[in-house]
Amino acid sequence: MSGRLAGRRAIVTGGLRGIGRGIALGFAAEGADVCVFDLEAESETASVLDEISKHGQRGLYVRADVSNEAEVKTAVARVLAEFGGVDVLVNNAGIVHESLLAELDVADWDRVLGTNLRGVFLCTRFLLPHMLEHGGGRIINMASQLGQIGGRTMVHYSASKAGVIGFTRALAREVARSNVLVNAIAPGPINTDMLAGESEDWKRAKLAELPIGRFGEVAEVVPTAIFLASDDSSYYVGQVLGPNGGDVMF
Fold first, then answer.
1. Which positions are catalytic?
2. CATH of domain 9-241
3. Structure confidence by residue, pLDDT tens digits, 184-242
């Protein structure tokens, strides 16, 4: 690795598995100290923290529900105290759920929007003042190609991710001149536990739509996050980068 993130301190939400884990370890390999927010017990975090330490970086785990205001506020305060600051926030935590809208429980709508969109707001809200006060930072929001094109049985998920894209673009306009650069990643379907939980009908239909003819891998998303966290992305503001196998083309 080239040490593109040497000396930086990052928070990755939902960082114990899937894309979040890949990003956390990729950041550490590039020289960043990494704090992971997730919901697992401390005993489930050892493998991620061990991998971070193998790269010679500090790792920290904070159990926090990103949809809970008090927990996020406490978690951010702890990271700032232990790391002395945070330069990069990756809002990756998310959940998925399938239902036709006519059958969708209100509770499931609230749960998906709470994690996927409210969580992005809360983590950003309580970390952004620190970045503004200390001269800048990078905020990377995990959207989805379904936030751009929608998906059958995925109205709530698609709405949450479209909201993330709108949030990203609006906030980028607010804070870019303060050297806080806000961008998003909108992956296509990636081989993770989340994808494994989708129905076989959904996966079969989505696979048939993809021009590349296969689902993506976590390792095909991580370089985009490293790029956006690094100085190489210094002229990227409010952009949505799409490692999606051709599901969305602009």
1. 157
2. 3.40.50.720
3. 999 999 999 888 888 898 889 989 999 999 999 999 999 999 999 999 999 999 999 99
* Exposure string for 28-40, b = 16+ CB within 10 A, e = fewer: bbbbbbbbbbbee
CA distance 155 to 139: 26
Q: How far is CA 62 from the centre of its chain?
A: 16
Q: Are strands 33-38 and 9-13 parallel, antiparallel or unpaired?
A: parallel
Residues with Cβ within 8 Å of residue 131, at least 6 apart in sequence:
86, 87, 89, 137, 139, 175, 178, 180
Domain range annotation of the chain: 9-241
Task: Give me the sheet containing 240-241, strands edge to edge.
Answer: 59-63, 33-38, 9-13, 88-91, 137-142, 180-185, 240-241
pLDDT tens digits for 47-104? 999 999 999 999 999 999 999 999 999 999 999 999 999 999 999 999 999 999 999 9
Are residues 138 and 127 in contact, defined by beta-carbon separation less than 8 angstroms? no
